[in-house]
Write a structure and sequence with these properties.
two-stranded parallel ribbon, alpha/beta, seven-stranded parallel beta sheet, single chain, Rossmann fold
């Protein structure tokens, strides 16, 4: 497929990694469809692309939208060579409270959103002239537990399992890759009020993703230094969780002493 013009669909293409990936592939002459909930943002990304980027409004968390979105896709392209499921959201829990609605919102976007995307894309993936490729943008946060990230990390871990499992159910049709980024400078990470080690710009992350998924590996983890730290944390999980429990206990004592 080297040198071929690809037909690509990127969800969550209105900002962040999705927008950067769209620009990257468009600059190479590929045909890119971007989707998201904000029509204005999608239009802004598509402008100036010489027609290489086409916007399509699609809320991945809306189960009922899969059928109409599939029909709309078929009006834009005859097939899909590459599907990048990038749409997602992040909300942090407020321990010790557990807000079921919060967990459901995050799962609707990050996990069920991938299922809805796949439902819409399958007819066009089946029409690809070559073996198509499905990429799920997950997160290094899904590798091991972090404070307040039970909803986000849990949804990303579930999404990664989903993408890997597709190899068993659809292995005769397509290849799959799970991409686990670390901290990327995007509108979603702007809400973070904690240190983000090895923070990477979205355009640099997009170029790295595009380069590393070319060979269709099962998993892409980056940046390597952060991935290595988390893999080490998984290897010594009891120490990892004990460390965070001590941090939480220390913070709790400080708040109690200050009367907050």
């Amino acid at each position: 497929m080297a040198g071929d013009v690809l037909s690509i669909w990127i969800t969550g293409g209105g900002s962040g990694i999705g927008a950067a990936l769209a620009r990257h592939y468009a600059a190479q002459g590929h045909r890119v469809i971007i989707s998201g909930r904000n029509a204005q943002k999608l239009q802004e990304i598509s402008e100036g692309s010489d027609g290489h980027i086409q916007p399509l409004v699609f809320d991945v968390s809306d189960d009922d939208a899969s059928t109409t979105t599939s029909q709309a896709l078929q009006e834009l392209t005859t097939h899909l060579d590459l599907l990048i499921m990038n749409a997602g959201s992040c909300e942090y829990i407020r321990a010790p409270e557990l807000d079921t609605a919060l967990f459901r919102r995050v799962m609707d976007s990050n996990y069920f959103g991938m299922i809805n995307t796949l439902r819409a894309a399958l007819p066009l993936l089946r029409e690809a002239p070559h073996r198509p490729h499905v990429v799920g943008i997950c997160s290094l946060a899904g590798l091991i537990g972090f404070p307040r990230a039970a909803a986000y990390g849990g949804s990303k871990a579930a999404a990664a399992y989903l993408v890997h499992a597709l190899r068993t159910d659809f292995g005769d049709l397509l290849d799959t890759t799970v991409v686990n980024p670390g901290f990327i400078r995007t509108p979603m990470t702007e809400q973070n009020r904690f240190p983000m080690p090895f923070l990477m710009e979205a355009d640099k992350a997009a170029a790295l993703i595009a380069r590393r998924i070319r060979r269709r590996p099962m998993t892409v983890n980056f940046p390597r230094r952060l991935s290595a730290i988390l893999q080490l944390g998984r290897l010594f999980a009891p120490i990892w969780y004990r460390m965070y429990m001590r941090s939480a206990d220390s913070l709790g004592r400080k708040k109690k002493a200050s009367g907050k």
